[in-house]
């Protein structure tokens, strides 16, 4: 019987391309947050400006233009978010593929990171026990 009490991983190193892709994704997320913040500020400024025009008796065209501009900016921010996220995911996939090519043990590392620590309670005869290789 084998009892595994604990597992400790040390000195885990990732390739520079993988680390770079993570950095690029974080930068993209920051950029998306900035765009969303600018969009909210513009919408707020447009709403305040539209309210002032409404109080002065200027209705319709200014308010409609502000809403159209708000919708356009919202769409542009969403499109930019999709583009940036797609680029980052693509780079991350490429980096993982390169890392896997240079280090086939990466699959085992990912399995270990995602494992919840519980072995199966039932097993099919002749099947392998996860993470236990007995040769």
List keywords for this structure.
135 residues; mainly alpha; 67% helix
Q: Would you list the SSEs in sequence order as H and E? A: HHH
Task: State the secondary-structure class.
Answer: mainly alpha
How helix-rich are the residues, as a percent range? 55-70%
Low-confidence runs (pLDDT<50, min 5 residues)?
Answer: 52-58
Number of helices: 3
- Computed over alpha carbons, the radius of gyration is 26 Å
For the sheet with most strands, the description reads:
none
Shape: elongated
Mean pLDDT: 76
Q: Kindly state the number of beta strands.
A: 0
Give the termini distance in whole angstroms: 15 Å
Q: In what range is the share of β-strand residues?
A: under 5%
Please provide a written account of the structure.
The chain has 135 residues and is an all-alpha fold. The chain has a domain at 16-105. The protein has three helices and no strands. Helix 1 runs antiparallel to helix 2 (61-102). The longest helix has 42 residues, at 61-102.
In a nutshell, what does this entry contain?
With 135 residues, the protein is mostly helical. The chain is 67% helix and 0% strand.
Q: What's the structural blueprint in terms of helices and strands?
A:
Layout: H1 16-55, H2 61-102, H3 106-114
Helix pairs in contact: 1-2
